[in-house]
Q: What sequence folds into this?
C-alpha cells in the first residue's frame, strides 16, 4: 500500500504512523527524518537543504521533491510506503503524482486523521515535560502524582514553548492554510479517507485499520 498521512499538529500522526508501518510492513517515511539524514551525511541535496534551514527559510519545493524522489526510489519502497509530512502543498502533490506515474505507481489512499480544534488545544496546551529526565505528562490525561513535580526524578515539570496557546493557534492556522487545498486535491482524486481521531490511541488505530480494510486485501 502507498499511503499519505495527513492531520493537524497534536492529532497523533507519529504514533499512528508507527503502528501502520509495523502492521502492514511498509516503511514510515518522514520528511523531517530524511532532511536530517541527508544533512548529517552531507549529500548534495542535504547541503542544499541546510542552506535554507540555517537561514530560517522553508526548503523550496524543488529541493524537497528531489529528496523525496531519491527516497522513494529505494528498494524498501517497492511494495509500499507511508508518507508523513509530505506532500505539504498541491505543487508537491502534483510532483509526487507525476513521479509515481513515471514508475507505474499511484497513491492508494490519503488518510486524514480528523480531530476537532478544541481537542487539539486541550491535548497540546496540557502537555508537560521534565527537562531533567524527559518524562512526559498531561495535566488532565496523565498528571504527575505530585502537582508540578516529575514522578521519576522529582524535578519541576514545564510546558514547552511549542505547547503554549499562542503557538498552538499559530501552528493550527498554518496547517489550515497549507492543508485545506491539499485535502480538496485528494478529495477530487477520490483517494481521501477520513479517520476519526478523537478516541484513545488504540481506538484510533482500529479506526485506521477499518479505513484500510478495503485497500489491503
A:
Amino acid at each position: 500500500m502507498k499511503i499519505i498521512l495527513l492531520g493537524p499538529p497534536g492529532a497523533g500522526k507519529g504514533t499512528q504512523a508507527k503502528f501502520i508501518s509495523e502492521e502492514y510492513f511498509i516503511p514510515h517515511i518522514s520528511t523531517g527524518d530524511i532532511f536530517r539524514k541527508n544533512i548529517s551525511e552531507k549529500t548534495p541535496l542535504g547541503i542544499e537543504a541546510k542552506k535554507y534551514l540555517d537561514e530560517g527559510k522553508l526548503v523550496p519545493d524543488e529541493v524537497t521533491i528531489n529528496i523525496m524522489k531519491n527516497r522513494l526510489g529505494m528498494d524498501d519502497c517497492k511494495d509500499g510506503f507511508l508518507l508523513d509530512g509530505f506532500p505539504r502543498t498541491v505543487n508537491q502533490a502534483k510532483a509526487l503524482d507525476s513521479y509515481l506515474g513515471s514508475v507505474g505507481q499511484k497513491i492508494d489512499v490519503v488518510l486524514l486523521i480528523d480531530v476537532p480544534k478544541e481537542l487539539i488545544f486541550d491535548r497540546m496546551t496540557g502537555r508537560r515535560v521534565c527537562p531533567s529526565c524527559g518524562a512526559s505528562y498531561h495535566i488532565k490525561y496523565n498528571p504527575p502524582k505530585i502537582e508540578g513535580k516529575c514522578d521519576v526524578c522529582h524535578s519541576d515539570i514545564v510546558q514547552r514553548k511549542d505547547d503554549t496557546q499562542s503557538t498552538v493557534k499559530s501552528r493550527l492556522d498554518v496547517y489550515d492554510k497549507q492543508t485545506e487545498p491539499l485535502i480538496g486535491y485528494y478529495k477530487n482524486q477520490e483517494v481521501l479517507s477520513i479517520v476519526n481521531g478523537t478516541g484513545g490511541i488504540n481506538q484510533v488505530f482500529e479506526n485506521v485499520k477499518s479505513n484500510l480494510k478495503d485497500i489491503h486485501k
